[in-house]
Every structure is written in structure tokens, then in C-alpha cells.
Amino acid sequence: MPSAPTTSIDLTDADVVADPYPHFAAERQRHEVARHEGSGTWLTFSHTAASAVLRDRALGRIWRDKEPAAYLEPFNLLHRNQMMENEPPEHTRLRRAVAGAFNRGHVERLRPRVRALAAELLDEVEPSSFDVIGEYAEPLPVLVIAELVGLATTDVSSLRRWSQAIVRMYEPAPSAEVVADAVRSATEFADHVREHLARRRSSPGEDLTTDLLAAGLSDDELVAAAVLLLNAGHEASVNVFGNGLVALLSRGLTPGDDPTLTVEEMLRFDSALQLFERTATREVEVGGVVVREGEKVAALLGAANRDPSAFADADTFDPQRDPNPHLAFGAGLHFCLGAPLARMELAESLTALFDCFPALDLVGEPESRGTFVLRGFRRVLVRQEGA
Fold first, then answer.
1. Catalytic residue positions?
2. Rounded to two decimals, what is the model's pTM?
3. What is the pLDDT of the chain when averaged over all its residues?
4. pLDDT at 104
5. Domain residue spans in the chain?
6. FRET partner for 228 with CA separation of 20 to 30 A, picked from 4, 20, 80, 162?
7. Do 75 and 303 meet the contact criterion of CB atoms below 8 Å apart?
8. What confidence tens digit (pLDDT) does each residue in 262-279 have?
């Protein structure tokens, strides 16, 4: 029996973090799925294998508290009780509560508000040079998600800081400083949400938090759901916008006639979420290898979205690519519940930016966040040509 394929790709290596796609392509030529020699986790390199991992019910999200558990309890609490880290029947119950709130028209209700917020933010920038991340792409989705759950706009800077600290824990081998910051931020974030829940219990509003309170969740589940919405609701949007805009401008492109197609290509071309991990609940075959019960397999979404077997000219940014079966929002049971909000927000914010500044250029080299799992830019300077 032939030995299972292995890979030694280092997802923390500076070259891989800077541009993972050539490394993925080299791996894909050798194998669809391989066992990572350092971690023992199986990694997928093809669209077919990643899609199978995301859809196979034998591969689940099985949360295990991070150690040391007592020290990391504030972080663990937010994940143990959220839908993304659970499987049915718990996942079904938790997702139904949030989906029911989303389905009450909140997304379309926010569309005019997204346009107004985008216009307000763009009115404040200096056309001759501004940071499109810090002054536009970052504050916009935080303001939107805060409004969705009924939090004050004065909370936005704290929400962003807490979120960034928590999601840095998803990277391989976080440092002691990153862990301490995540614990502190998780504590402060949860306390803030509990205070907000208490206010909404006594004074209901026209927001998603009020709807969630009627869904019969426990206090810990309500806090976890609200934090997940606030984190996932803007992290992806910020990074997709920044990654996609850099891809557009560095190639001298602008959004095509249909901005919704451009948004889909932004989601595909430089994936904001690069890795989504699952655990085998029984023995299962993926991409020609056997994953045994208890073993982990990570779908590399960026690799899947650049697979030439699924996308013609996969390394070309095509603003009007159609069809575009990318996996940026996942697939199957854990498909991103906030995808409609993210798509609407990205289309509106992209349109507003180019309506205001139709001849936008990059200024200097964009500054990367330097992270692999959640890929994005910390700072992107742009200017309106002729300003």
C-alpha cells in the first residue's frame, strides 16, 4: 500500500504569508490532499477536495477548549457556545435563532444606511492621499454591524480593537502576547455585550439583538452569537475589500458594468479567509486519502479559489468572471450566514468609492497585516488622479 502524501509547507513562512498562491500551485501539482508533517493536519490544495471537506457531514467543527483552559476561559466561552464551532443538533438550534433574526429584513433595511455611511466617510477623506483601509474599508462594516445589533457608533473603535485581538488567535502558533491580548479583549467584549443585552431586555429596539433575545438562547449563547456577528460581520468585509481593491488597482482595472460580479471576483482572487478546519467524526476518504476519526483536515480556501481545474486563467483577476464557484463563504452546513450582508455591503461600498473617485491610484506599497489565516492589508494608501 503506497504511503500517504505529505507536505512540509510552512504556513507561517514570510514568503508564504506574502504570496501563498505559487506555493499552493506547486503543492497542487503533486497532490490534492497531503498530511502536514509538522502538525499532522491534512491540507487540501484543490477546489474539489476543499469542497468535499466543507460538505462532508463526517467532517465536523468539534470545539476543544484551548489550553490552559482556566486562563483562556474568556476566549473559550465565546467559541464553545457559538454556532460555527458546533455540529447538529446544537448547530441547528443556534443557527436557526440567528437566521430567524437575519430573515426579518435587516439586510435590505440597511442598504440605504450603507450608502449614507459610505458617502459620509468618503466626504471626510483627502483625495490627494488617504488610507482606504483605515479611513473607509475598516470603519464602514463596523458601523454597519454595530447598527445591525443596536450598538452605539461610539463603540466602533473598541469593537474593532477587540475583534482584531481575538482573531489573531486563529493564526498558527500565536505568541504569549497575542494570547494575553485575546483573553483581555474577549473579557471586555463579553462584558460589553452583556451590558447591551441587559439594556435591550428592559428597552427593546428595532435591531437584531432584540430579535435574538426572543429566540430562547442562554446568556452565554447570546453573548457568543453577538460577538460572532460583530467579528465575522466585519472582519471578512474589511479584508475582502482591501485585498480586492489592491488587485484591481495594481492591474489598472476598475469595477465592470456589474459590480456584483466584481465583488465575487474579489472574494475569489485573494481570499480573506485562507483556512477552515474540520475534524473527522469517523473514517472518511477525501481526495484519495483516508482521514481517520479524530484527525483534522483543513480546507485551504485560497488554494481552492485559484485551482485552474475550477477557474479558467485562475491567476488572472477578471472583474466580470461568470460563473464563479468560489468557496470564500464556505459551503455546506457552515456556509456563511452573513454572506448576503457582506455581498450587499461590498457592492455598495465599491460602487460608492469609484463613483466618488473614478481615477483612483495606489500610492506606494500596501502594508500587509502579515497574517496567513485571515489575510488582509493594514494600510493601503490611494489617491484620486489629478487631485
1. 232, 235, 237, 336, 345
2. 0.93
3. 93
4. 64
5. 6-384
6. 20
7. no
8. 999 999 999 999 999 999
